[in-house]
Amino acid sequence: MLEEQKNYQKAATSHQVSYQQVYQWVKKYENGGEKALKDRRGYKKEEEELTPEEKVNLQMKKLERENDRLRAKNLFLKKLEEIERRRE
Q: What pTM does this model have?
């Protein structure tokens, strides 16, 4: 199709997709080759693929989750301690 004057409408009709979809696929292919056409929705990068900024952000999110978990645990333990004191 690429060699044949890029007839987007014909390709869209034959594959039952929109003209715009075909156009986007062709542009992706021209800019990044076959790899650019791969569906990466929901894909997480491997740690080696992350930029230094992304690594810092990931570490920050992990620490925030751990902090939230520890806060919840502390609240639970305080309430448990209070209940035990009331029973005595």
A: 0.46
